[in-house]
Every structure is written in structure tokens, then in C-alpha cells.
Amino acid sequence: MSSERRLPPAAHALINGDRRVLARLITGAENDDPGARAVLRAIYPRTGRAWLVGLAGPLGVGKSSLLNALISHLRGLGQNVAVVAVDPSSPFSGGSVLGDRIRLDRSPDDPGVFIRSMASRGHAGGLARATREVARLLEAAGFGIILLETVGSGQVDVEIREVATTSVVVLVPHLGDEVQTLKAGLFEIADVFCVNKSDLPGADRARRDLMEFASLGGGDPGWTVPVVATSATTPSGIPELWQAVEAHERYLDSSGKRIEGERRRLTQEILALAESRFVADLSRDPTLPRRLEPVLARRLDPETAARRWWVERRKGRT
Predict the structure, then answer these.
(1) Quick one: 47-255 is in which CATH superfamily?
(2) pLDDT, averaged in runs of 10, over the chain (318 residues)
């Protein structure tokens, strides 16, 4: 029997473009549903070729407006495009606070666009836990370009580097703390800088400052980070922004950096999954209460207790 026939029915439907199945599988991935996990395992060989373009930056820089403009530009080029917009979580429902219908205004009749808003659910780093899995589902559904919008918590939106193939850091004129923001980590993750709202005063100076930062290097020595000025309201600079993204994606292929980046990202993903599963397993260990007692009594420090526990489990004892 061919591998194609061994695919779960939901995987067949996904590959054949069923958007309702895609939406259900995304929800299943977010909720760690076994059925969605089975589909993710089945479609994995079909993934790894899409462009995952991340947009990171502080709140208020206009990432959502920029996404709208990018979608229009890409559709004009005849490209299918998917968007994963990660929002802060509601402290009451745990769901997405903002939601794609409010921020991203696209026609529901356009089959070449798929937008999904996801709640971060308290996950640090600017993304949701299931972002990688959702991107794979979208790729298997036929989307070769996937735009990822981070929460917008600014200095900590650095996890995008472990998911996106190209990271666009979006800033605006007179942000106030550009230098400190860059020093805090956004500079290190940028493959492209975008000065959005460039119709505002101070845009030229912000662009010059960023170009000076980019010239200092510090990232990939083979890639000079471009600085593009955009305005979603004018609009202007959108084609140039996409050209910068395309240039970086071509560089990844020509330099061999794509496989290097994929190796780094998959290493981090496997380690994170293993840690998550291991911690979940330990939390159910019935010996945990008695192991806690000597630590509570200050007869044993937490690090030693954890190390002994780990050694005993490796030896197969409880």
C-alpha cells in the first residue's frame, strides 16, 4: 500500500484544500488533540519548504496594518498566503484578546488567503506553543508563504527566530527606546528591519540610525540586514519590503544557511518537546511528595533532589 493511501482521512482532506478540516486541525493542534497529532506525523514529510516570514516588534508599530498591505501585495503577485496572528491571551477565557476579524480585514471569499488568530496562552517569546505545528498544517494545505505576527511584547519577541525562516523587525519613528530595544535582543533576530509609519516625522533619521546599527554586524556575517521604510496608509515601501524578504530567502538557499537554520530550529523544538513531556511525566510521579519533604525541611537542596531523582529514574528505580 502506498504511503499516500496510508494517510489519515483528515490528512487527505487537508492536502486537498478542505479549509474546514484545516481549521479543525489547527484547533486540535492548539489543544494537543491525538487526532491532530496523528495528522501532523503523517504530513511531516510534506513540510519544510515554505517561507515562514515573522513580523516582530513592540505594540503600536502597525504590524497588523503592515500584514494587510503585504497580503494585498502578495495576492497581486498571484501568491497564496496564510497568516498566523498571535495575540495576548484573555485572563478570563484564555482565548485571543484581539482576534483576526478585528485587525485583519480580508474577504472570506478569497481562497488564496487563510488567516488564523491564536492566543499565546501565557507562552513567553511572542508566539503560541503550537505555532510550529500550525505552520506545518498550513504548508501541507498548500500555502508556500506563511506570515507570522508575534504578540508585540517587544524585547521578548525573540522566539520567532526559532520558527521563521526570515524575521522582520518592525519599528516606527520616535519609538523612544530603539537603541535599548535592539540591545535587548530584537537586533540579534532581525534579518530585515522595517521602519513602518514612515510618513511620520523622523522616519529618515530612524532609518539612518538602523542602517548604522546594521552595518555593525553581529549576526550572520554573510548577510547585511537591509532597512526598508514602509507606510501602510500611503501605502509605500511594501514591494521593497517583500523584495528584501525574497533576497534573504534566496541567500538562505545560495549560502547553505537554510539547512543550518532548520537544523537549529528542529534541535530547539525536539529539546523543548522532550522537556515538556519529561516534566509532565515527573509531575505525575507518586514519589514526588516524599521527595519534597527533605527539601522542605532544608536537609536537601532542590538541585541535589532533582539530580538524585533523575539518576534513579535512569536506573529504572522509583
Answers:
(1) P-loop containing nucleotide triphosphate hydrolases (3.40.50.300)
(2) 70 95 95 94 95 90 91 95 78 44 60 86 56 95 95 62 92 65 66 92 85 75 92 91 98 96 93 87 90 95 93 76
Burial of 156 (0-12, 13-18, 19+ CB in 10 A): middle
Distance of alpha carbon 43 from alpha carbon 71, whole angstroms? 26
pLDDT of residue 97: 47
pLDDT at site 127 = 55
Ordered by start, the domain boundaries in the chain are 1-44, 47-255, 265-314
| Main-chain dihedrals φ then ψ at residue 316, nearest 5 degrees | 85, 15
pTM of the model: 0.85
Spatial distance between the Cα atoms of 318 and 308, rounded to a whole number of angstroms = 11
What SS3 string covers the chain?
CCCCCCCCHHHHHHHCCCHHHHHHHHHHHHCCCHHHHHHHHHHHHHCCCCEEEEEECECCCCHHHHHHHHHHHHHHCCCCEEEEEEECECCCCCCECCCHHHHCCCCCCCCCEEEEEEECCCCCCCCCCCHHHHHHHHHHCCCCEEEEECCCEHHHCCHHHHCCCEEEEEECCCCCCHHHHHHHHHHHHCCEEEECCCCCCCHHHHHHHHHHHHHCCCCCCCCCCCEEECECCCCECHHHHHHHHHHHHHHHHHHCHHHHHHHHHHHHHHHHHHHHHHHHHHHCCCCHHHHHHHHHCCCCCHHHHHHHHHHHHHCCCC
